[in-house]
Every structure is written in structure tokens, then in C-alpha cells.
Amino acid sequence: MSLKVDVVVVGGGPVGLALSGDLAWRGHKVLLLDKGDGSIFQPKMDLVGIRTMEFCRRWGIVKDVEESEYDRNYPQDNVYLTSLNGYELGRQKMPSMNEELPPKESPQKRERCPQNYFDPILKKFALSHFSNNIYYKTECIGFSQAHNQVNIQAKDLNTDEIFNIESIFLVGCDGGKSLIRDSLGIQMTGKGLLTYTTNVIFECSEFNSLHNKAPGYRYMFIGPSGTWCTIVAINGKDQWRMSLIGNAEEKRVYTEEEIKSLAYKAVGTTFDMKILSVLPWQRAELVADKYRDRNVFICGDSCHLTSPTGGLGMNTGIGDAVDLSWKLSGYLQGWGGEVLLDSYTFERKPIAERITQFSTGNLEIMKKLPSNEFIYDDSSTGENVREQVGKAMTEGLKREWFSLNMHLGNRYINSPINIYDEPEDSLKVQSEFEDAINYIPSTRPGARAPHIWLDKDLSTLDLINKKYTLFCFTNITDEIKVICQYANELKIPLSIFYLDSIQTKSIYEWSFVMIRPDGHVAWRGHNYKLDPHLFWSTLTGNSNAIHH
Ligand SMILES: Cc1cc2nc3c(=O)[nH]c(=O)nc-3n(C[C@H](O)[C@H](O)[C@H](O)COP(=O)(O)OP(=O)(O)OC[C@H]3O[C@@H](n4cnc5c(N)ncnc54)[C@H](O)[C@@H]3O)c2cc1C
User: Based on the structure, what is the number of domains in the chain?
Assistant: First the structure.
């Protein structure tokens, strides 16, 4: 058996599913291989971030997420305690999914939709395009590159048959132990191992009646040495995930008795718990040195590993997938060039560094608390310790719970495929980039194009689709007309919209804003009087884009 496709995606986790879906949505022939059977042993992610929800809106799958099985009335509070029957040290109140409204900066809001519900939604989306196919129980065992093409060797794990696939591109979405990354010899850099952690999913329908605290999404248990355990409401009903946080020094393996006794310690009483799965895993902070080798790319956990304290691992991986997809698509359509493909590393690596460092920072806040052995004491000393710890958690973790800028503020600074306007204060740009909370809508090149409601259900984001999009806030000039004609002649897909809402004008600021197919601003200006060829060769990373 030998197959030919445009792109082979290895790995059908959330990132591979999103990438293959987006590529097929853009009309390309994609084959996704996964060595598993599509079932999820233990759901890891459960926060679908606001930017990912904007992509879901574009893909038409918001309703599927909203209708998934998570109990949308379940409160989402983060609660800091010594135990559920001990002292509550602080609480960050958070609305349930049904109560929360989208912020003014987005048509969507973040959603709680754990992986065992979210992956099937992405799979359904990916398979809704006839040009996409998924082979489960199929392992990629090797590949080679020659003549602008990749030859992939795959093994059918049901029959042991080995077969070849020819493809223009190969993308490894094959997770933290990526074969594709290792085969390319790409190293990862960062703090490395942070903790040996064990996750336990258990069933207990009466869990919240075992204690007298108001229900929460995440209970965080603090002892004399900081936070040692968390329990989260994994489906808002009867399933819970306990994480025994651990450290980087000791690789613990827990027996069932030990797991149960630690759960009893967290709750402060014994109870009936049915352990559904136990997953020891290593928390790390690592980013790949590069994301591309000729026609092979890596994406998602294969190029960055982060502490989940921030809910950003998958969300960043889906951001990678969206960034990569339109670039591969541009190349396959003939208008995108080498620099467009190279820009994937330039743009996404700094984002991975941003989110991994932020997430490790959150872990450190949880672990390094002003706590000591008096935290459990029924005395004024104990009260004092609990107050200090409660304050440190409540204040310190606000940046994790309200990290809007981590999701919407991923600006591509110094990208070779954007045309930047006035020089900016680099210290200010850096401090905005590092700010987790305060998102300031902006059309500065590289930023996500801002959302404004144009009508009851129509956002500016809904106008940005598979093409470049030019927003015009004034009559088109002769020079901009030429830019549009060039796009047409070079077969670069472009949509043009004339917008006159005062609010949109005031946020978009400039007469013309050119937005890339991924929704980031490529250029803005009141006119463009330079060479139109230079304009498009920069944006498409294609110096061969010659105008005839
Ligand atoms: C406890 C915990 C909580 C988390 N919570 C969140 C959260 O709330 N929000 C968030 O954004 N992120 C969260 N994350 C991180 C998130 O789960 C990961 O970032 C995400 O799963 C990565 O997706 P991926 O598709 O890149 O890789 P994976 O999910 O690891 O998928 C890789 C796939 O590749 C397949 N594969 C591997 N090698 C091969 C091969 N050679 N051939 C064929 N197939 C192969 C595997 O079978 C697997 O299906 C959390 C992580 C943990 C541990």
C-alpha cells in the first residue's frame, strides 16, 4: 500500500486533530496517524481558552462545546484549604459556565470542556471534511526527506503491515516524547523537570456532601511546605481528579492504599472512592530550539512542555496549529514562500517561552508559601499563618485565574512576514508581552485583530476567514487599489470590507488594516506608497511572487 497526500499529521491528540481539521477546512488532503485507538485513558486538559473558543467559532463547533456533558451550572471557584473538613484559607469566586458572559474583548468566553469531551468534538470537525482521513492504531515509525517531499513509514498495529505515504509536508503533533522531534535531532531548552506528579481520576457522586465548604471547581490543599495536592471537578458531577504534586527529586510510585489515605487526608475524612485511573507524569518547562526542518514541522506538546498551572498547554498547541495551517496552505496554493514557512518558528517559539515561564511562575507561587507546621494549629499563631498563606494564594494566583492577556495578547513581534509601522519602545512592548492579565486591544502589526460587535451576532472576527482580509475605514486610495490588484494577479486570496462603525474605527485607528488568514494584523496604514511587490512578497514570505 502506498498513499499520496498534501500533509501527514502524526498524533491525534487535540493539537493534531485541530491541525488536520483546519488544513482540511482549507481544502487540503490530509492524513492523520495515531498509534492509539482514539480513546482517552485519562483526560488531561479541561480548560478551553478564550482564543481557542474563537477558533471553534470560526470552525462552527461552539455549540458542540457548549452542549458537551460538563455540568454548566457547577461553580468554578478555586478554593485554598488545609483540608475540606479543616480550614478554608481563601477562595477565588468564579462563575459557572452558565453564569459567565464573554468579556467585551471577545465574542466568546473560556469553557470548561475536558479532553474526553473536547477531542471527540475536534475529531468530528476534522472528519467533516472529505479531504481528511484518520488512521487509528497506526504508528509512524520513520520518515525521510528528499526533493521537497517527505516519505513516511507507518505501521498498522492491527496487522503489523508496514506501508509508505508520500506527502509534501509532515507535522509531528506526537506529544512530549515526539519521535518526529527526536528524529530531526531537535533539542529542547528550559528549566527541565519541575515535578514528578501523579494524577488519579476517581468517582464519588457524594463528594461535596463529605464536607461543609461551598462547592468549588478546584480545591488546593496546603500543608507546612506549601500546596501538596489539588482535587478538581473533572466533569462537574461525579468524577474528580486528584493531583499529588510531588517534587523534582523523588519519583514516587503510590499504592492504592497510599492514594486513598492521601485523598482522606485532603478531604479530612474517609469515604468511598472508586479509582478509575492513575497516571504518573513528569511536569517540565521545555521549548524546542526550532520547529522546522525543511518540510517537517513539530507542533503542540512536541515542541513545548509546560506546567498545567495556567491551562495553556493545549491552548498554545492549538495556537501553533492555526499559525502553521494557513502557512502550509499558502505554500500548497502556490503563493506562500520559504520565509512564510520559516516564520512559524519565529512567531510561535517566543509564545511558548512566554507561556511556559508564566506557568512555572504559577507553580512556584503555589509551592513557596509563608507556611509552617502551625498551619493546622487551633491557636492565634496558626490563625496568623493561615491568614498569610490565604493572602499569598489569593493575591498570587489572580494572574492565573484572570490571564486574559496570556490568551489574547500573543503578539508576533519582529516577524519577517509583518510590516511594522512606527518604531516602538521595546521595554514597553516586552512588559506588555509579559503581563498575564491586562489585554489591550490593538491593531499594531503582529497583534490579534480586535473583536468589535458589528451586529447582534456578527463580530469583526467573523469577517476574517481563510483569506487575507482588508478592513477599510475610508475610501480606498489608488495605491491600495493597486495592492488589491496585485493580490488578485498573484492569486493571493483577499477579502475586502468597508467598515464605518465609529467604535470599530476608534479601536482599529488606521484607515486600512490588513489581517492575515489566522486573524493577526499584518500591516496597517493610512496609505501604502511603497512598492506593492515588496508589500506582498513580505506578507507571503515569497520573494518569487513576481507580478506579471
Ligand atoms: C493534569 C494536566 C492538566 C492539563 N490541563 C490543561 C488545560 O486545562 N488546558 C490546556 O490547554 N492544557 C492543559 N494541559 C496540557 C494538555 O493536556 C497538553 O498540552 C495537550 O494534551 C497536548 O496535546 P498534543 O495533541 O500536542 O499532544 P498529546 O495530547 O500528547 O497527543 C499526542 C498523540 O500522538 C500520538 N502519537 C505519539 N507518537 C506517535 C507515533 N509515532 N505515531 C502515531 N501516533 C503517535 C499519541 O497516541 C497521542 O494521541 C494539561 C496537562 C496535564 C498533564
Answer: 1
